[in-house]
Design a protein that fits this description.
The protein contains no helices and 12 strands. By secondary structure, it is mainly beta. The model has no long low-confidence stretch (mean pLDDT about 85).
């Protein structure tokens, strides 16, 4: 695949059965998410709001994509959003609040999402949480050795080990 142009591109994720790729373009204060065909053609915006950073795309399922964006140009706290392929609708997940960062989402099923957050009730810095995308309820990951005063970012989940 050859992608022409001079824009910085990063964080690629395959979608549509591997036929399309979502990636971030331009890592500056106006980074946006675009989708292209695997051969580099047909570039289309997924999340491209002016003066906002949109990044960290994660495939949720065949119908949805998770990503992170700022609250606003003035409030650069991260918020987890979902994009629906069929409707083009975008929305914040209910557990996000503008006074803290909600970053690095990772789905574990069709409802629950791991994320890192700077919420006040944490151990310090970024901590790992589980969020219910339907109700907005959250649970701090209750493994003493995981959430510390350091930064816990970039969760991942494997439902079972494979051979």
């Amino acid at each position: 695949m050859e992608i022409k142009g001079t824009a910085d591109r990063s964080m690629p994720v395959f979608v549509s059965g591997g036929e399309r790729i979502v990636m971030m373009e331009n890592a500056a204060a106006d980074g946006d998410l675009y989708m292209i065909n695997r051969d580099g053609t047909n570039r289309q915006p997924v999340a491209a709001e002016p003066n906002l950073q949109e990044y960290f795309p994660v495939r949720w399922d065949d119908n949805r994509l998770l990503y992170v964006r700022w609250v606003s140009a003035e409030n650069r706290n991260d918020q987890v959003c979902v994009y629906h392929w069929k409707t083009g609708a975008r929305r914040l997940l209910k557990f996000c609040k503008p006074n803290a960062n909600y970053s690095d989402p990772y789905p574990i099923d069709r409802r629950w999402v791991f994320f890192s957050s700077t919420r006040e009730e944490g151990a310090g810095g970024y901590d790992l949480y589980l969020g219910d995308s339907e109700t907005g309820a959250t649970q701090r990951v209750q493994i003493d050795t995981i959430n510390t005063k350091a930064e816990e970012l970039g969760s991942s989940y494997l439902p079972r080990w494979t051979k």
